[in-house]
Amino acid sequence: MEDKGGNILEALGREFTATRDINLLLKNVFAIIVSSYKIERGMISIYHRDEDEISVDIHHGYTDEEVRRGIYRPGEGIIGAVVQTGEPVVIPDISRESRFLNRTGADRAGLSGIVSFICVPVAIHNSVVGAISVDIRNNDQRDLSEELHILTTVSIMIAQAVNSRMEMIAGERRLKLENEQLRRKIDADSVPHRIIGKSGAVRDLYEKILMVAGTDSTVLITGESGTGKELIADAVYENSRRKGKPFVKVNIAALPKTLIEAELFGYEKGAFTGADRSRKGRFESAEGGTIFIDEIGDLDIHLQVHLLRVLQNRTIERIGGNESVPVDVRVIAATHHDLEERVKSGYFRSDLFYRLNVFPLYSPPLRERRADIMLLADHFLELYAARMSKIINRISSDAIDLLVSYYWPGNVRELENCIERAVIICSEDTLRACHLPPSLQKIGGVSQKGTLEERTDAFERSIIIDSLKTTKGNISRTADELGTTKRIIGYKMSRLNIDYRDYREG
């Protein structure tokens, strides 16, 4: 036994001398331990002080899913206790140990005979930086003193490597954080503050706005009514080279059909009864700048050819005129219609559609960005409370449940109107469910009963599940969308009994 232990330590010493890559070193050291004893499973866990979490870094015999679930807090389970106390623990028979949480969910019932568990701290200058833990087949019920001695010695040998590994991880996190902060600053500086949201769908929209804004390409904004298509047009203009030059807006749906042509293209004196002077249209008024044509899908098909001429030739003709007037105008259009369907049904010209659809921007409905609902609700609460000189500090949990679970067919516009109405009614410092419209009171959704913890869990569960649906079960994207870490999302999913695989395609 002594020779065996000496041989193992000699092999480990050679590994430490030969291997410079920290990650590879930890893997090779662990492989030596695993091959030397009857180890079924094992892991090296690292204590991340910034998040106060212990998570698996190097492992043997565990699936990726089990590793993802293997997150502890100091004091939780045996691994958490070892990290907290700095004292090793030996469990002769793990099946009889109540402190063993098995957070990974690994199936030990499939292992034959008695399985023992050893966990030793990894410490530098009396500061615990992690833990080594192993499952060992122990049918002969030996005292495991040699294994404990070897693991304790190994823990001392790899402490510095683990510390270096932690510093590397911390450096990567700092770099990621700095990049994220820089990106957010760019977003904040570049995108109008009226576009509110941190969801993946909104961040994707931000990126596309910044891509196209610096060009003169035609932009087509699509999306349901109330999603903020005009705000997107504002964002494109404010980040374009044409900022500071005319920005002319026209809503086709708000104009009488008989006036649309004159409004867009202007007219000459005497062109029709009452035309006692020549008048520029919106395109000429936008010379050198940008024109935003809202509800382009409602444009009469007979007028669509005139707009097509502008996009093709960059010229217009006034009503009653016979001269082409050149225009230097960038076109941004928006519609709540499905233009492809309108093309199929004959209500919209296919050539105009393709001219408009150079760079499409999709304004997502509120139900596809539920993570933004409370950001928007808080914004509108602050806005209207200030306007009405009221002090309303927060939104109650029952009101939050209703807001988050509602379908929002009217999207952001409906949410804004809902909060404005609630502020009018509210006569206390908290906006409650009773202040919300009856349409929200009738819905099901998150439970309105239970303890604060139960209702908070239900709310968190609904948010995470909704995000998983959006990301198609991608945990990393879900963490990004919700503004947290993959490790925290994994922990919450495990605690709330959420399986990401339920939301993957196929």
Compact summary:
The protein has 506 residues and is of the alpha/beta class.
Key structural traits:
single chain, Beta-Lactamase, 3 domains, Helicase, Ruva Protein, domain 3, five-stranded antiparallel beta sheet, Rossmann fold, alpha/beta, elongated, 506 residues, five-stranded parallel beta sheet
What does this protein structure show overall?
- With about 500 residues, this protein is an alpha/beta fold.
- The chain folds into 3 domains: about 1-175, Beta-Lactamase (2-Layer Sandwich), CATH 3.30.450; about 200-365, Rossmann fold (3-Layer(aba) Sandwich), CATH 3.40.50.300; about 365-505, Helicase, Ruva Protein, domain 3.
- The chain has 19 helices and 14 strands.
- The strands form 4 sheets. A 5-stranded antiparallel beta sheet has the order 2-1-5-4-3, with helices on both faces. A 5-stranded parallel beta sheet has the order 7-8-11-6-12. A two-stranded antiparallel sheet has the order 9-10.
- A hairpin with an 8-residue loop joins strand 9 (about 315) and strand 10 (about 325).
- Helix 10 (about 300-315) crosses helix 12 (about 350-355), helix 13 packs across helix 15 and helix 17 crosses helix 18 (about 475-480).
- The radius of gyration is 32 Å and the shape is elongated.
Instruction: Quickly give the structural class.
Output: alpha/beta
What value does the Rg take, in angstroms? Answer: 32 Å
The CATH class of the largest domain is: Alpha Beta
Named CATH topology of the largest domain:
Beta-Lactamase
CATH homologous superfamily grouping of the largest domain: GAF domain
**Total helical segments:** 19
Rounded mean pLDDT is: 83
Write down the overall geometry: elongated
**Portion of residues within helices:** 40-55%
Largest sheet: 5 strands, antiparallel
Any idea what the CATH architecture of the largest domain is? 2-Layer Sandwich
Strand content: 5-15%
Strand arrangement within the widest β-sheet reads 2-1-5-4-3
Residue runs with pLDDT of under 50 for 5 or more positions:
444-448
Overall number of strands: 14
In angstroms, what separates the terminal alpha carbons?
53 Å
Taken together, the total number of domains comes to: 3
